[in-house]
Amino acid sequence: GYAQALDGTWDDYRKATGRNGAKRSNFNDAAHFVGWYVDRSHRLAAIPKNDARAQYLAYHEGPTGYKRGMWRKKAWLINVADKVSTNTARYDAQLAACDGVRLASAGS
């Protein structure tokens, strides 16, 4: 998953956040890392935080590689990023359905 970051990226995360003891194997640390990385990609490469496809590409290529378009020559990577986007849409729909159930049952 996302916490399989390069050592240098993980070190950047720990320095930037002051979470020096953060461990990739800790779910809370890994989740915090994901938020940090998405925000970083947004700031450095102007990628919308809710664009899972572009965020995935930037995660794989780094913000600079993403901006240079290095991913465009990697059909396999584009395919994986498209699957990430499809899964994101499916999860969004599932979450919306769950929220609707909760709202409906909360009112009865």
* Strand residue percentage: under 5%
- Helical residue percent band: over 70%
Write down the overall mean pLDDT: 90
- Counting DSSP E segments of at least 2 residues, the number of strands comes to 0
Distance between the termini: 40 Å
What count of helical segments does DSSP give? 4
Order of helices and strands: HHHH
CA-based shape? globular
Radius of gyration: 16 Å
Largest sheet: none
In the predicted model, the low-confidence regions spanning at least 5 consecutive residues are 103-108
Helix-strand category:
mainly alpha
Strand and helix map with partners:
Layout: H1 7-17, H2 27-45, H3 52-68, H4 75-106
Helix pairs in contact: 2-3, 3-4
Please explain how this structure is put together.
There is one protein chain. This protein has 108 residues and is mainly α. Helices cover 73% and strands 0% of the residues. The protein has four helices and no strands. It has helices at residues 7-17, 27-45, 52-68, 75-106. Helix 2 packs across helix 3 (52-68) and helix 3 packs antiparallel against helix 4.
At a glance:
The protein has 108 residues and is mainly α. The chain contains four helices and no strands.
Characteristics:
108 residues, disordered C terminus, 73% helix, mainly alpha, 4 helices
